[in-house]
Task: structure prediction
Amino acid sequence: LYESDSQANGLNEPWGIAVAGTEYVYVADTWNHRVLKYDTEGNLILSWGKFGDESDPYSMWGPREILVDIDGLIYVSDTGNKRISIFSDDGKSIRQIGLGGSLNGEFEEPVGMAVDNEGRLYVADTWNARIQVFGNDGEYLYKWDVPEWEGQSLDNKPYLSIDSVRNLLYATAPEGYRILSWNLIGEPILSWGDFGNELSSFDLPTGIDVDIHGGVYVADSDNNRVLYFK
Result:
């Protein structure tokens, strides 16, 4: 663990951000291979992680997403190391989920994550073209296929978000130019979008979030805009 200092505050293509209550903001500082913790005034409180492809949970390789669950645990998709790492809010390692492969509980390019009201973890297992679901203790529960994620392009970085009121999971399909949704057992509910720059079209949609009213925000990356749907 590294306490804050003036040289630790530089970012290198951060991909993920999460807010914990009204006190802290966590950032997946992707190509510095670490997690940064800030207060709401933007002061760096703590950082942890370094480049590495080892089993050590503090060795990271391009972490792409970060989230905070209802118990305050910090989840990091350590994409290059093909695992999800879980930490306490002071950066102490709790457990890891997964390793490289295509069997149940294994990952190839894990990116987006979401946690539901019951504490189940949903992971965008991108290059295996599926979503995998895990229980509170990291045990594998079930999965479903996402054909729109097929292929191993480096631009294929889908993200997830849960509508906790309607119990729906949303995902981006960056190279399918679509937004997808399912119920929480993987039954398709709705999808929309196509390639283009109209208000109902996308060009490499990546980040996604759902507000308390069920409105959906999408980072439409190559169109250089954010879209809102309700």
